[in-house]
Hints:
CATH class: Alpha Beta
Pfam family, one: RNase_T
Keywords: Exonuclease, Hydrolase, Nuclease
Organism: Streptomyces mesophilus
Number of helices: 10
CATH architecture: 2-Layer Sandwich
Number of domains: 1
Strand order of the largest sheet: 4-3-2-1-5-6
Distance between the termini: 46 Å
GO molecular function: 3'-5' exonuclease activity; nucleic acid binding
CATH topology: Nucleotidyltransferase, domain 5
CATH superfamily: Ribonuclease H-like superfamily/Ribonuclease H
Number of strands: 6
Helix content: 40-55%
Protein name: 3'-5' exonuclease
Amino acid sequence: MGWHQELLIGFDLETTGTDPREARIVTGALIEVRGGKPIGRREWLADPGVPIPAEAVAVHGISNERAASEGRPAAEVADQLARALAGYWDAGVPVVAYNATFDLTLLAAELRRHGLPSLRERLGGREPAPVIDPYIIDRTADRYRKGKRNLEAVCTEYGIVLDDAHNATADALAAARLAGAIADRYPKIATLGPAALHRQQIAWYAEWAADFQEFLRAKGDASAVVEASWPLRELDINSGV
């Protein structure tokens, strides 16, 4: 039995924007999945403390009015999410997030913004791990497949039903199931342990970043820099709320 048949934690955030260093959490979800079946979940709705742009509302459907009236304080949501994630990692349970660098870097930014312990601090100085990112794994395993690589498109490729895209709980569940489907298709992925797979993804991401940076420079952008860190990027945000 491979890691994909054991307990996995699907993780997703819906936010105010697309820059993980500046966007704020609107909704978050952690869903426990075993063998593709959900067995537990936690969901959060936050008052982000800043206006939610109309384009973000159009994506996830959470209005400013609802966030303000029903959402919990942003610092409380970020703290509870981080505490729960750290608990899973301490137990050695893999956390699955599609395009993990976005969600984890955004959460890290929120923790710093509110003066809360970082993910590393909560783990005694260890890196957040193991993380499984179906986006990175699929892009490596099927490098030359044409078409989009967003969650909806990749779910379609692997036969995963995603009925409510951009709902944090639905996306978290889909990410966990997608990780399992990729492992089923590629036995070499399934036979890696979570720790080894985490290390492989670091290397795969760095290799992709170097290739993409070289491509951009060859196209005329001599100063192009593509960040090579995964799954958590260094932060340069202002710590103030």
